[in-house]
Amino acid sequence: MAELRYQKAIGRALEDAMTADPTVILFGEDVAEAGGSFGATKGLREKFGAARVFDTPISEAALAGAAVGAAVSGLKPVLEIMFMDFTTLVMDALVNQAAKARFMFGGRCAVPLVLRTPHGGGLGAGPQHSQCLEAWFAHVPGLKVVCPSDPVSAYGLLRAAIDDPNPVIFVENKSLYASKIDAPDELPAFEVGKARIARPGADVTIVTYGGALRTALAAADALAGEGVEAEIVDLLSLQPWDEATVLASLSRTHRLVVMHEAVEAFGVGAEIAARMADIGFDELDGPIVRVGAPFMPIPFSKPLERAYMPSVENLVAAVRRTLA
Amino acid sequence: MTRPKPKATTGVPTGRNNPSEISRDHLADLYGRLLTIRRAEERLQKLFADGEVPGFIHLSIGQEAVSVGVMDALRDADTIASTHRGHGHAIAKGMALEGFFAELLARDEGVCRGRGGSMHVADMKIGMLGANGIVGAGLSIALGSALAHKTRGTNDIAVAFFGDGAQAEGLLHECLNIAALWKLPLLFVCENNGWGEFLPTTKHLAFQLGDLAAAYRVPHTRVDGNDVVAVQAAAHRIVEAMREGAGPMALECVTTRVRGHFEGDAQKYRDPDELAALAALDPVRRVADQLAALGLGAAALEAIDAGVAQKVEAAVAHARTGTDPSFEAACADVYAEGGRA
Q1: What is the chain B residue with the closest CA to A110?
Q2: What superfamily would CATH give domain A2-183?
Q3: Domain range annotation of chain A
Q4: Which fold has domain B28-283+295-323?
Q5: Which residue of A10, A91, A143, A246 pairs with A40 in a disulfide if CB–CB is 3.0 to 4.6 A?
């Protein structure tokens, strides 16, 4: 066992993937000489050289298109987009090109690219450096979306994303970069599309992912004090998402709350709630309740941002509602 | 022997209309390839009018010399990214007519199994990275392909075809900058047909491509895009320099859009005199005249045409007897299988 930081886990996954596969290249704004805006790619330029790890101009649209072109020409590009808010600029390359190429070219090509990007608030970064936009990508057939919740899942999912023959959006929650856990020396493999039970419990299922997992675990502790045992499903993968694991948990607890940091309206939680209301209808003993951010941009001021972010209190209240 | 490097020009077309620069056999071969695109698109025009081709099609009639001339300088491993007006690019890069027509007729036997159609014909095996329904999108795909060629250490090149209208897209500027900065083997080929959808280029652009390319220090050559000899001569010279590491180049081909923006577009916005003058600029007719002047008889020219027409008809017949694509197979191809468990 050794202490593993989330940020280091990302770097280690990139290093191991690049060692294992010479077609993996890494590029983005300040990923090479500076080692990444959040330090995740430190040392990779020195280890793999400028031909495989390189800085780019501030040209997100062209870079994402280039990732598609490189992917259909035999490379496995890993592109970093510095903040998820900037993915507005790469939409054509991802939505019209990467997502559709395999399908619209008759299944005769693959687009093995990974776009890494950080999301999430809590840093006072304001309306254009904090958003959680993962639902946009999960809505596009042909894209995959994953969102690890700790250093071990970050390592395993990034390896899986790079090995995946499809375009994968790898979402890193900014508040997790400094987080650390004791991890085995040999890190376990993860599979895109598989959730895990982060905490077992019999009374209510809380489905969440990414940085919100910590809020959910804290809420579960608070609820345990009231005699309510919450089971927490950590989705890890949003597209595809692990319907079977969520349904199995719901079948044990008969109550469901879906929680994420992203805006609640039209979000990942809406999809899960709608699906479970359908295939899990007979298992439900209470309303499915969603907890997400309010329908507004993320404010800059600390008190405003705190009020905006879904909290332990919001989640505890939601659980009480479905148990009532 | 040192090879001459292409030099930047921003003036009038420099294409030399001198067929003696290439052999008669080479010219006859180019003629057959020009005719193949012409006859294929004329056939599509009729099939579309008869309701056999669904969706939208954008014909490149009048622009064939750009496809044939540029592709004459390329090899199989070179890659191209095309546009919504991409039939000529696909056929010139080597797409078989059977798979092409089957795709346009939405058959399972099509190059894209009937899922892409006219605006998405592609075949990675021949380096045809796809026609594209999004104006300018092919530029960055070709940029990435050029990056792949360079990263792998080959001297293959990537070509981005784009129209004059796409010059107003930000992607062109981003791609020029990156290609120049990283010295990528990317050839920017502008098919300047004077029209962006329903508006003349003069109402789209405040600049000339030569000036823009110069700003990024990308050498620019402007040729008569309806002169296949001039296009292929420029393309051979440029591509040779690029294979030796000269970095990105721009080739602007001044050409003519004979048909509308899309089939069914009555082009009421065009001056009848302009349309009437197009016949005299026909790139296919021009080569036929050159071959005749070089002593190729009418019978030989007709034989080339008949051979092309026969191939086109055979491809249409093959497409017509094709099968409808399977919905289940289509669903199975949204994602590629595989990856690490």
Answers
A1: B336
A2: Thiamin diphosphate (ThDP)-binding fold, Pyr/PP domains (3.40.50.970)
A3: 2-183, 196-323
A4: Rossmann fold (3.40.50)
A5: A10
Per-position b or e across A225-264, b if 16+ CB within 10 A of its CB: eeebebbbbbbbbbbebbeebbbbbbeebbbbbbbbbbbb
Is residue B224 a contact partner of residue B17, using CB atoms and an 8 Å limit? yes
Q: Which of B137, B143, B338 sits opposite A92 (nearest CB)?
A: B137
B154 to chain A nearest CA, in Å? 12
A129 flagged as catalytic: yes
Q: Could you give the 3-state DSSP secondary structure of residue A118?
A: strand
* Residues ≥6 apart with Cβ < 8 Å to A311: A215
From the list A105, A142, A166, the residue facing B130 with the nearest CB is A105
Cα→Cα distances B204→B126, B164, B197, B222, Å: 34, 9, 10, 19
Residue A250: its pLDDT value, please?
98
pLDDT of B11 strictly over 50: no
The answer to whether A227 contacts chain B (CB < 8 Å) is no
**Boundaries of every domain in chain B:** 28-283+295-323
With an 8 Å Cβ cutoff, are B145 and A192 in contact?
A: no
Instruction: Spell out which residues of chain A touch residue B126, defining contact as CB-CB under 8 Å.
Output: none
- The CATH class, in words, for A196-323 is alpha beta
Would A2-183 and A196-323 be classified into the same CATH topology?
Answer: yes
Count of A–B CB contacts within 8 Å?
161
- Our CA-based measurement puts residue B152 at a distance from the nearest CA of chain A, in whole angstroms, of 9
Q: Which two tokens stand for residue A20?
A: 């294992």
Percentage of residues of chain B with pLDDT beyond 90: 92
Active site residue A260: no
B107-135 per-position pLDDT tens digit? 999 999 999 999 999 999 999 999 999 99
> What pLDDT shows up at residue B248?
98
| Inter-chain residue contact A65 with B139, CB threshold 8 Å | yes
Question: What pLDDT, on a 0 to 100 scale, did the predictor assign at position B19?
Answer: 55
Residues of A in contact with B123 (CB under 8 A): 105, 108
